[in-house]
Amino acid sequence: MPTLSITVTPLELPLVHPFRIARGVELVASTALIRVRAGEIEGIGEATPIERYGETVASVSEAFARYRPATGDPFRLETLLDPSLPASARGGFDIALHDVIGKATGKPLYALLGLDPGATPVTSFTVGIADPDETLRKVAEIGDHPILKVKLGEGSAAEQVETVAAIRSRYSGAIRLDANEGWDVAEAIRILRDLERFEIEFCEQPIPAGSPAGLRAVREGTTIPIVTDEDSLVAADLPALYGCVDGINVKLAKCGGIRGALAMIHTARAMNLKVMLGCMVESAVAATAAAHISPLVDWADIDGPFLTASDPFSGVTYDRGKLVLPSAPGLGIRETALA
User: What is the pTM of this model?
Assistant: First the structure.
């Protein structure tokens, strides 16, 4: 039985534009590459630590410095994916292990999961918070991409409505909103009612996490469907949301990787919830891993590679926004250069 070796390398990803959401702004995305070697096979994953949950690249490295694999068999995922590992670290490890397994069997990840690579959805392209002129410049750069996700939650209600109105005046595709917990219940209802006239597909996480009753009130107060993100980190979070929302967002960095994402998707389907598959600002490694399971979901927001100015990896590609999966074994990631 081979011995598993794990190495962690920080990765800095400069962004095309400053990426602002209701909680702050990012100029460079900091992630960690997780390389797992089993015998002659090396798999690669990416951990995307989230500051909101007390995670950093340093904490990911420290977690693996303490971690000792209980087995050298990369197929024993339940044994290896120790729940004591922080979510983003476990997610990156999970991705790397699936890459190893795919390479060992000669199958791309989607084939291991029995999925149709032609059934991938079209991804949205995220527009971060900016002043009206900068926002419209970003929309112009995006061109005819069929779906935009617009970040809100900062500034006055009137300013936020004006932002969406300005975008809709120039853009005819689908618009999704994400307030990143930036409103209270009354404000969310007021703003969303005002935005109903712009044919909004849904609004993601309008209010701070932790109030299913508040989400229910927002959902009942507007015709715009409500989707969670910060309220739905793992499958165990979903039962409390029953009857309160229309859908959930699944992110590998938050749920612990592919296995955690599958648990969330199946739980959501049992609850008659729609599912979006999202990402953080990260490289093609994590984005491609998510893309492999995208045939299982209704909506995709896997646009990390659009937002970074220099990505040392290639994997998932896009055909007018539709996710195109690589067919090589495992994730199908190709390393072009190290940043």
Answer: 0.93
